[in-house]
Amino acid sequence: MAVKKQYAVIGLGRFGTSVARRLHAAGHEVLGIDIHEEQVEDAEMYITQGVIADSADKKALIPLELEHFDYVVVAIGDDIQASILTVMLLKNLGIKNIIAKAVGKRHGQVLEAIGVEWIIYPERDMGERVANQLLAPNRLDYMKLSKDYNIEEIMLPAKMTGKSLRELDIRAKYKINVISILRNEEIIVAPAPDEQLQNHDVLVTIGKRSDLDKFSQLN
Ligand code: ADP
After folding, report:
1. Among 17, 18, 22, 35, which residue has the most ligand 1 atoms within 8 Å of its CB, making it the best to mutate?
2. Does residue 73 contact residue 9 with C-beta atoms inside 8 Å?
3. Residue 76 CB less than 6 A away from ligand 1
4. Is the CB of 122 under 6 A from ligand 1?
5. Å from CA of 125 to ligand 1 middle
6. What is the predicted pLDDT for the residue at 136?
7. How far does residue 35's CA lie from ligand 1's centre (Å)?
8. Would you say residue 210 has pLDDT above 70?
9. Interval 122-146: pLDDT, tens
10. Under 8 Å CB-to-CB from 3, ≥6 apart: which residues?
11. Are 43 and 50 contacting, i.e. CB atoms less than 8 angstroms apart?
C-alpha cells in the first residue's frame, strides 16, 4: 500500500460514512466525527476511531487536533449552518486540504467564498454521471480535466475489432488520442500505431468532450 494517511470525516451520514469506509478499507487511518452518538456507533466498524462532537462548536473542535490530519472531509449536508460554521472554524485553525460536501449551489458558493479547496456536489455529479451513462453506454468511466476536456474509458466499437490504430486513423478522424488500452487484466500504455484492437478492449482516451461524445456513440 502507498503511505498510510490520516483522514478526518466530519458528519457520518450516508455520504460521510461511504467516504470513511472506502478510505479505511484501503488501509488508512480514519477519524469519524458526528454530533449524534447513533451515527458514530453505526459507522464504528468502518473507521479507526469515532468521536461524538459538535464540530460547529469551537471548544469541541479544537481538542480534536485536526491540524495533524492529511485531509479533513466535511460531510455535513442538511444542516448548512453547521457545515459553514465547521468549515470557518477549520479555516481559522489554519487547516488546509478541506474537502466539503455542498447540498446545492448556494451552499457551494459560500464554501467557495470561505476558501474551501475542494467542494463536492454528490447529487449533481451523480445525476450527471447517470445521464452520461444513458447517453453513451460505451463510455465506462470519465474524468473531467477542464471545462472542455476529458479522459474517458470507452468500450471499443464492435466495427473496429481487428483493426489497428493506424488503420482506423482515430486521431485524425475523431480528434481524440488513445493513451492506453485495457485488455483483460492488462494495460497497454502508449499503444503502438500497429497494435491490433481486440473485442472487449477498452480505450483510454483523451480529447474534447464533444469529440469523445461522438466516438462513444459509435457501434
Ligand atoms: P447524508 O445525505 O450524507 O446522509 P446528512 O446531512 O443527512 O447527509 O448527514 C450529515 C451528518 O452530519 C449526520 O449524521 C449529522 O448527524 C452530522 N452532523 C450534523 N451537524 C453536525 C455537527 N454540528 N457536528 C457534527 N456532525 C454533524
Report:
1. 35
2. yes
3. yes
4. no
5. 20
6. 85
7. 7
8. yes
9. 999 999 889 988 888 899 999 999 9
10. none
11. yes
pLDDT tens-digit readout, 103-129: 999 999 999 999 998 999 999 999 988
What's the rounded Cα separation, in Å, for the pair 191 and 165?
A: 9
State which of 9, 31, 34 you would mutate to test the pocket of ligand 1, scoring each by most atoms of that ligand within 8 A of its C-beta.
34
- The C-alpha atoms of residue 136 and residue 13 are separated, in whole angstroms, by 32
Residue 81 to residues 34, 111, 186, Cα–Cα distance (Å): 15, 11, 48
- 202-208, strands of its sheet edge to edge: 139-144, 149-155, 202-208, 176-183, 186-189
Q: How far apart are CA 167 and CA 177, in angstroms?
A: 14
User: Residue 150 corresponds to which cell in the numbers above?
Assistant: 476529458
Q: What is the pLDDT of residues 147-190, one digit of tens each?
A: 899 999 999 999 999 999 999 999 999 999 999 999 998 999 99
**What nine digits make up the cell of 128?**
450527471
H helix or E strand, kind and range, residue 6: strand 6-10
Do the Cβ atoms of 139 and 154 come closer than 8 Å? yes
